[in-house]
Amino acid sequence: MKQEDKKGTIQDINGPIVTIKLPGVQNGEQVRIGSLGLYGEVISLEGEEALAQIYESTEMVRPGEPAEGLGHPLSVELGPGLIGGIFDGVQRPLEEMFLKAGDQIPRGLSPLPLDREKLWHFSPTENLEPNMPIIGGARLGVVQETETVEHRIIVPPNIEGELIELAPEGDYNLEETIGQVRDRHGKVHHLKLYHRWPVRKPRPYQSRDNGVEPLITGQRILDTFFPLLKGSKCAVPGPFGAGKTVVQHQVARWANADIVIYVGCGERGNELVDVLDSFPKLKDPYTGRPLMDRTLLIANTSNMPVVAREASIYVGITIAEYYRDQGYDVVMLADSTSRWAEALREVSGRLGQMPVEEGYPAYLASRLAAFYERAGRVETMDCGKGSVTLIGAVSPPGGDFSEPVTSHTKEIIQTFWALSKELADARHYPAIDWVDSFSADVGTAAEWWHENIDRGWEKRRAQAMGMLARDAELSRIVNLVGPEALSSAQRWVLEGSALIKEGILQQSALDLVDTFSSPEKQFMLLNLILSVYDEGAALIELGVPVQELAEMPILARLRRCKELYDSSQIDQLKAFRDEALNDFKEIHSEYAQRGEQTA
Amino acid sequence: MSAKEYRTASAARGGLLTVANVPNIAFGDRVHIRDKQDNTRNGQVIRSSNEEVLVQVFEGTAELDLESTWVRFLDEPIEIALSPEILGRVFSGLGEPRDYRPPIVSNLRRSISAAAFNPAARTYPKEFIQTGISTIDGLNSLVRGQKLPIFSASGLPHNRLAAQIVRQAKLPDDDSRFSVVFAAMGVSYADARFFQDEFASSGVLGNVVMFVNMADDPPVERLTLPRMALTAAEYLAFDLDRHVLVVMTDMTHYAEALREVATAKGDVPARKGYPGYLYSDLAEIYERSGRIKDRHGSITLVPVLSMPSDDITHPIPDLTGYITEGQIVLSRELHNQGIYPPVHISPSLSRLMKDGIGKDFTREDHPHVSNQLYALYARALETRNLASIIGADELSARDRRYLEFADAFERRFVQQGEDEDRSIEETLNLAWDLLSSFPPQALTRVNETEIAKYHRQSE
């Protein structure tokens, strides 16, 4: 059916759900309604009538006003100019909207996501000649998008055929043709620096691949205790105030990914401003460039219309897949997937669908699973490797992890960073609970650590986890009958666990040194603290009182090592270890002598 | 304004009136309903099609009969008239005067459901506000443009605390006071009176706009009231360049009104009967605070809500906590011990504190001192629990020190007079008084320079 036929009228307005009479419109098609031209999406059809969810407020829209179908589903523009930008839930550029329309987001305005005027310097791929066959996903050339990111211009995945023409090196804007491909039906496609892709359709790849290396976030409890592989998926659930957002920001800052996509989905406006303000000033620890040079923000703040919130995470993941297809390791953070699920619930409620759990529709679990499955490490269409790592925050009502969104998410993900209110209340940050959290990828991560850092990693990690578990057990006894009931060895476990908690697990996002720990430093600290614990345990065997050990001045300094030495000062850390172990040796020889004397 | 009146009401149920056969009525349109006694009620279109229009009647549909009900569609959204004259006035949830003075006459009228602020237009709030209250300034600092609610419960002195904040809030080096927008939803006469007297006695009345909906006023008006108030606040802040402090009480009454209306409409309930969109709805209100690029003014929002049965996991405090930038939680336990303000610091939090305090804003030791007090108090509360089981005599000397710290912290730091306006300097010095009861090596959150400078034993 031709475009001009798809004109109709509004029948009924029920908040963001609008019934339109629009024969021939397709399910999922984009529509514009009313005299303001508000954007929306058809979600169901019945006869000549279509139900549409509208991304903007429908206040003062009337029955009888016009509606038109746009002939395509919700799509994003993929091309240079994305990185460093901030877009709303349907990829409208917010900076440009601010310049054009002022402080508030007006309705019906829809500037193009990518700048059409800007010239990009395009260098075609060598050895690519006219008349060669070319597949979707093949690399036509590159554009330097930011100083950090080389944007690889690829053939849209749904086009393949014979390359007829490729533009020479030079400056082009987004609308200029840089290549032509004739498909097997003889149709000639004019390729540009950008293409469009529907957000609800996962982008294709050759095959799935196993994750092989951990994502290094510089956060000790994450990397050392609950590692996440590149291409894996992870949930960060936590009640309000437990620090979900700080954890996500820290990962966005310090992860060793090529591209970071941060989707603020139904969250606070000021938090996005924080990212916008601080990222250009912060340096990527791997490249030394401003962090904003590899970061892209999608912002649907909590007060923006709820339907666009539902779209925002699909917009984010589609852009993530696009950079994956260029062969990059992409991290996408979605804060928070609960708000997305609530948007689903709100729309389904308006449609009168039968609620199952806490008002959520029956398809919640399958939608969540399908979304998380878009993460992964893949062999791309042109035989490269790329990955999308997905980290979704979950905001369970009342901090109850048994609620539907958390429990369904838990079934899908591989790594679970559970935040605890109790830890946050004691200002133990990051408030990641070592009892509730898990990682299914420790084995694979261990291979990487053993190869690149130290062969003792897995053992040391297991020892520390074991101590923390014993600590939890012993603490229960202490809370019932007091510390006097414990043996000396048991009390030393408590002291050792306290060292692990304060010296390793707690990490200040605000401290300039502590905010990032390289894997080397992480292992150094772990090894250091456990060595001290082992030495102490040996002394206790000899009959040294726990009290004497606990009051050793070196322990206070040990707790501060994380902020005293930065990631480059591994040698100083080693020197400190020698000093600490020496202190223990002195006590050891003292008591050994005494032992001999009494013997 | 349309002069045409319809008499085609076809159903009246709960607070909803269905009007048949009125074409082209806008969604969200404001409505006047005239009943048999010739009284006018207010309403708003909440669903519109050509066959029938659903009108939410603010005053309810009691005593309406379908035969003699005249409905007029005003062809405008719900608006508020704005001028500098609003300061010193009292309005209802629909913007009508409640102080027996004439309505505001102004050409400037704004729809109360404003579009969302563009995140790209915001600037990050980071100017420390001194409230003179140690638990807030020292441990949960408020900054200009923040939204920081008070989580309270029935019988706790949240009103007194809110009034004290209004009285004392200022920037440390700046004597200019805030303009205040006060929004009261479903409050008792006693509470409304308390605030009015407070504002009058502290001489700020001329700088306050009040929006009041009493406990016996129509609940539906509680839904428009905070939006009226915030539209007024935005006008004061971004048109008149003022720094505005918005106090809202009680958000629980607001949410209950929302539930009442949602139930009448037949919306699918999510938790405890509240509609699934409670989060988005609360966010529409709370997110209207903030700072905007190139604008001098700001909106700082302090909503007060009472937690039903003291339960912080109840949907209202829970969803609020997910939207606001922290929370100040009041404790019945402290209150029963006669401690005012009974701020329970453990669950309290200010998310924007980190960028508004420290070297260039308050004092260099502030972030660490705050952290240290939190850590010590958490440990001290654990010790207190232990003492209640095994008895204080069984504790080690080290543990007893924690126990003493907990008492001193509550009696000296948390507790203060209702008229006591502590400067941030005083608050931090008081903190060091308490920290100095510990040897320096027990203080791991403050650094060595700070210990040398402020720890009493180092002097």
Spatial gap, N to C terminus of chain B = 76 Å
Strand content of chain A: 15-25%
CATH class of the largest domain in chain B: Alpha Beta
CATH fold-level topology of the largest domain in chain A: Rossmann fold
> What level of helicity do the residues of chain B show?
25-40%
Q: Which chains make the largest contact?
A: A-B, 80 and 83 residues
* Percent helix range of chain A: 25-40%
Quaternary assembly? heterodimer
Please, how many domains of chain B?
Answer: 3
Model regions low in confidence, pLDDT < 50 over at least 5 residues of chain A: none
Q: Care to count the β-strands of chain A?
A: 28
Overall pLDDT metric of chain B: 92
Please tag this protein with its features.
heterodimer; A: 599 residues; alpha+beta; OB fold (Dihydrolipoamide Acetyltransferase, E2P); Rossmann fold; 4 domains; globular; B: alpha/beta; Thrombin, subunit H; 3 domains; 7-stranded antiparallel β-sheet; 21 strands
What this model shows, in words?
The complex is a heterodimer of chains A (599) and B (459). Chain A is of the alpha+beta class and 599 residues long. Chain A folds into four domains: 3-73, Elongation Factor Tu (Ef-tu), domain 3 (Beta Barrel), CATH 2.40.30; 86-102 and 113-198, RNA polymerase II/Efflux pump adaptor protein, barrel-sandwich hybrid domain (OB fold (Dihydrolipoamide Acetyltransferase, E2P)), CATH 2.40.50.100; 209-412, P-loop containing nucleotide triphosphate hydrolases (Rossmann fold, 3-Layer(aba) Sandwich); 457-598, Orthogonal Bundle (Bovine Mitochondrial F1-ATPase, ATP Synthase Beta Chain, Chain D, domain3). In chain A, 36% of the residues lie in helices and 24% in strands. Chain A contains 16 helices and 28 strands. In chain A, strands 8, 18, 19, 20, 21, 22, 25, 26, 27 and 28 form a ten-stranded mixed beta sheet that branches. Chain A has a six-stranded antiparallel barrel with strand order 1-2-5-4-3-6. Chain A has a four-stranded antiparallel beta sheet with strand order 12-11-9-14, with no helix packed on it. In chain A, strand 23 and strand 24 form a beta hairpin. Chain A is globular. By secondary structure, chain B is of the alpha/beta class. Chain B has helices at 134-137, 158-168, 189-201, 221-239, 251-265, 278-286, 315-323, 332-336, 353-356, 366-390, 397-414, 424-435, 448-454, and strands at 5-6, 9-13, 16-20, 30-34, 40-49, 52-57, 70-73, 79-81, 90-91, 109-111, 122-123, 128-129, 142-143, 150-152, 179-187, 208-214, 243-249, 290-292, 298-306, 326-329, 349-350. In chain B, helix 3 links the parallel strand 15 and strand 16 (208-214). The relative contact order of chain B is 0.12. The model of chain B has no long low-confidence stretch (mean pLDDT 92). At the A-B interface, strand 1, helix 1, helix 4, helix 6 and helix 9 of A face strand 5, strand 11, helix 6, helix 7 and helix 10 of B. Strand 1 of chain A pairs antiparallel with strand 5 of chain B.
